[in-house]
Write a structure and sequence with these properties.
The complex is a heterodimer of chains A (721) and B (200). With 721 residues, chain A is of the alpha+beta class. In chain A, 49% of the residues lie in helices and 14% in strands.
Chain lengths: 721, 200
């Protein structure tokens, strides 16, 4: 039954999308791939609104699909004279190549989903939306903030066929892309080069792995190429209905992946350049907004940042810190490479950036020779537009959207020498076969299995065993599911394939709050984070209405305060209910510096710059003569000044640099840390044996007050007290 | 501007006034005002004010305390831990003891701790004393005796019975049974202490 459910889920989704595209485009565009992509945009936004109103039920999806299919079927029945577009290949070699790769990808996409991101956040949220019948506010993972246009289609399929159905929908985007490339080439008068280019794209290793997983890069590539084709169709036909489709597909590109925003600029810019009519521009912009805006509004309402998890500097919020965003973006621009000059070899043959395009793509610079032709210039413009965002994330798969344009332009050039284009395409197809890739590419995670997993796809072999073999940490996800109660929350430092558990999984780097949880644990046993520095200001006793500590110089670290106490003599002023606390920046966690706990803390969330402050408004008058801050050791390097608000309401300087005293870390930090995690809603901690804290939890479980309740494949699950 | 509006409108394919109520009603100009304001709203919201939160049980040292539960002799504040029985000055990271060195430490209530110390018997004094037995006493009560038969650095680490400990200040004496005597001045030297204190 499960294989049938998978096939039904994927097929029903693709047919529904194609039906919606057919309804919109009518007779204006007969390419099924274009109808599918345009309809995907519509279906995606329909599912979005289903999520928004909590109507995510299989029965609702059946109704949407049924109505769409019936409506489009009736419409098609009236258009019997329509010219039928059929797929044809010019050469028997291509039939062999396409058939071989189709079989390879079909069974890989149908096999249990084990990809790094597919089995985590892409389908993790999809399964939760289905479980909760719609969206709910998620602040604990930055991945929930990303636009998820493709995931909406995955959700439609997932409702019937679970994980593999979603992956198969993504595979259909590859079919649509390759199909459309061939159709475009035939129409533009270069069928053979276009077919060769389609082979290049279809057999590229990174494309194959991506397309057969619940990722979204191939969906973005299909949307980008569909947009390109639609724009050129509109340019020649000036059919108004195409403008709406252009807008929808451009918006869909953004909805699929943030980097697709260039599609909107491309569409609007192209139409503005060719038409200069405001009404036509408005149609395109409205179409794009209809698909893209819901994601922007959702983030704005729930997270205070329409473009979360980016642009936090302009839209400050408690969920992602500026410091994290800066580090994250810096890492994505170079990964672990020592130089960007290594990128060409890494993305074509070495694979350290996550898969390879194939060594043949080292010929890509030759594509520039296509600038001689009009078609070539158009294609290279498309490549430039959709490759423009590549250096924001240099992973190989981020080259997939411009890949069809590059491949077409390259083949236009190579086709000037008879037989060369076909030879290069066949060579690439042979070299990219999973069994041959390891001959020249070092082993890495981003590879298809050498053997076609047809038994696993048809569920003739236990999916559980297949997943345990493909992913060592799959067992950890199942352990979490089996040993914890529903609604349990599990904290961990590294991601596991949590699409296979229904529990709430908090991964340290995925939100500011998770980072705080991680630091609370770390600070309980790592001396460089423990509260071992005490800063003390003393000033002549006086009546004040408020106090603040201000930074006076920049630093390459964040500012962190474990506790801030205000003194009168040797006594601490009691923290009265009328007091009001704030900080700049990151005011949202300032209470953690006033809760009497040495494990909680306030942190600036960005590197220290002059003018940051932590402030207490007494809401009345207090007499004080000192301030004391407990902080981690690095706080000693931050230049601070103490200011007070006098009774007239003016800020006056009370003292400059504080005296500092090194103290031992308080006893009981571990127990306090685990209690604090519990108080913040965490029930369990999952620790992998190779992680920095594995020995600490194993050896000192008693001090933490935790109890190991499970172990599998090098992962241990601890229950908090 | 008055002349330009109709020309621009016709060029952009707009209908005469009355047909497009949005333009007629000023929707576009109004929207153009509200949109930047909405965008600005996303950037605002700072600072935000919060009341003091619920207070957690204290773990930290009392505010007046200048000592905690562990000391390294090289620390600038190590003097605060010394009650007596040490040389006045440390020699870098270590300090000579006399025949009755006493330290003080601050402990929270109900602490389950080990006493840990790192010390050394230098060759020049060990040649005088021979094997040395150290007697560990907490708050005046002996809880351990250990014999050291070789010169060199030693580490001591043993759980402490909770009933020997007080919440707050605790004194620890580490008495050597034999001391060496310096020829010049007759100073009695026990052993060299590097660090001592309580740990979890």
């Amino acid at each position: 039954m499960q294989p049938l459910a998978i096939l039904f889920g994927a097929a029903f989704t693709v047919l529904t999308a194609t039906a919606l595209g057919t309804l919109l485009l009518g007779d204006r565009c007969r390419d099924y791939p274009l109808r599918f992509v345009v309809g995907s945009a519509l279906l995606s936004v329909l599912v979005f609104f289903s999520c928004a109103v909590h109507l995510v039920y299989p029965i609702c999806f059946l109704a949407v699909g049924g109505v769409s299919l019936l409506a489009s079927g009736a419409w098609l029945g009236k258009k019997q004279g329509a010219k039928k577009i059929t797929f044809s290949v010019t050469n028997g070699i291509f039939i062999v190549v396409f058939t071989a790769y189709f079989i390879l990808y079909f069974f890989n996409s149908m096999a249990p989903e084990a990809s790094p991101d597919g089995a985590t956040y892409h389908l993790g949220f999809v399964s939760r939306y289905l479980l909760g019948h719609g969206f709910h506010r998620i602040t604990w993972s930055l991945y929930a903030d990303l636009s998820a246009g493709a995931e909406m289609l995955f959700l439609f399929a997932f409702a019937f066929g679970k994980h593999s159905a979603a992956a198969m929908v993504h595979f259909c985007f590859l079919i649509a892309l390759v199909w459309e490339m061939i159709l475009y080439g035939r129409r533009a008068g270069f069928a053979l080069p276009a077919t060769c280019a389609a082979v290049l794209v279809a057999s590229s290793q990174v494309v194959g792995v991506d397309a057969t997983s619940a990722y979204n890069d191939v969906a973005l590539a299909a949307a980008a190429f569909a947009l390109f084709v639609l724009l050129h169709c509109w340019e020649s036909e000036r059919e108004p209905r195409l403008l709406l489709a252009i807008g929808l597909v451009a918006g869909f590109a953004y909805a699929v992946k943030y980097t697709g925003f260039v599609a909107v600029l491309y569409a609007v810019g192209f139409v503005a350049w060719k038409s200069r009519r405001l009404r036509e521009l408005l149609v395109v912009a409205s179409g794009a907004a209809a698909i893209a805006l819901p994601w922007i509004v959702k983030n704005w309402i729930w997270l205070g940042n329409p473009f979360a998890p980016f642009f936090n500097q302009y839209f400050p919020n408690p969920y992602i810190t500026i410091a994290f965003e800066k580090d994250y973006k810096a890492w994505l621009t170079l990964y672990d490479l020592p130089s960007r000059w290594q990128i060409p070899w890494e993305v074509t043959g070495k694979g350290n950036l996550g898969g390879i395009l194939g060594p043949v793509f080292l010929l890509s610079p030759l594509a520039l020779l296509a600038l001689r032709h009009k078609q070539g210039r158009r294609l290279l413009l498309g490549a430039a537009v959709f490759g423009a965002t590549y250096f924001s994330n240099i992973g190989t798969r981020f080259l997939i959207p411009p890949l069809p344009f590059v491949a077409l332009a390259l083949m236009l050039v190579l086709a000037t020498i008879p037989g060369l284009a076909v030879a290069v395409a066949v060579l690439h197809a042979v070299m990219s076969w999973p069994g041959l890739v390891p001959k020249y590419c070092p082993p890495q995670g981003w590879q298809l299995a050498r053997r076609i997993p047809w038994r696993e796809a048809l569920r003739r072999r236990d999916p559980d065993q297949y997943l345990r073999k493909r992913r060592v940490d799959y067992g950890a996800a199942r352990m979490v599911e089996s040993l914890t109660p529903p609604n349990a929350t599990v904290f961990m430092y590294r991601e596991i394939p949590w699409a296979y558990t229904t529990r709430r999984v908090l991964v340290e780097y995925e939100s500011a709050e998770n980072e705080r949880l991680g630091t609370i644990v770390r600070a309980a046993f790592q001396p460089d984070l423990a509260p071992t520095l005490r800063l003390r200001w003393v000033f002549p006793r006086r009546a004040l209405r408020g106090l603040r500590v201000v930074t006076t110089a920049p630093s390459s670290d964040q500012w962190s305060i474990k506790e801030l106490r205000i003194l009168n003599g040797e006594d601490e002023l009691p923290r009265l209910a009328r007091w009001r606390l704030t900080a700049h920046p990151f005011p949202w966690t300032i209470q953690d510096a006033f809760d009497n706990s040495p494990v909680t803390f306030w942190r600036s969330g960005e590197m220290v710059r002059p003018g940051m402050f932590v402030e207490v408004d007494f809401g009345g008058q207090e007499t004080a003569d000192g301030v004391l801050i407990d902080a981690p050791p690095n706080a000693g390097d931050i230049r601070l000044r103490l200011e007070g608000r006098d009774l007239a309401g003016n800020w006056v300087s009370l003292a400059d640099a504080p005296a500092s005293l090194r103290l031992p870390a308080p006893l009981g930090l571990r127990r306090a840390a685990s209690s604090e995690l519990k108080r913040r809603g965490v029930d369990y901690i999952l620790v992998l044996d190779e992680e920095f804290c594995a020995a600490e939890f194993r050896d000192n479980a008693g001090l933490w007050g935790v109890r190991q309740i499970g172990e599998t494949g090098g992962a241990r699950l601890y229950q908090l007290p | 501007m008055a002349d330009r509006a109709p020309r621009l409108g016709s060029r952009l394919g707009l209908q005469p006034p009355g047909r497009h109520f949005h333009l007629q009603s000023g929707f576009v100009p109004r929207f153009s005002i509200w949109l930047p304001l909405l965008l600005l709203a996303g950037c605002g919201g700072l600072p935000e004010w919060y009341p003091p939160p619920m207070q957690r049980p204290a773990l930290t040292l009392p505010l007046a305390a200048t000592f905690g539960q562990f000391v390294a002799m090289g620390d600038p504040g190590a003097y605060a831990y010394i009650v007596g029985g040490f040389r006045d000055k440390s020699e870098g990271p270590w300090r000579w003891t006399h025949d009755h060195p006493v330290l003080q430490f601050w402990l929270p209530p109900q602490a389950r701790v080990r006493f840990t110390a790192e010390f050394s018997f230098p060759e020049q004094t060990f040649s005088q004393t021979g094997p040395v037995t150290l007697t560990f006493a907490i708050n005046g009560k002996v809880f351990d005796r250990v014999r050291y038969a070789q010169p060199g650095t030693e580490k001591y680490n043993r759980p402490v019975p909770p009933d020997l400990l007080n919440p707050g200040v605790n004194t620890v004496a580490i008495d050597p049974d034999k001391c060496a005597t310096r020829p010049e001045g007759g100073e009695r030297l026990g052993f060299v202490l590097l660090s001592a204190g309580f740990a979890e």
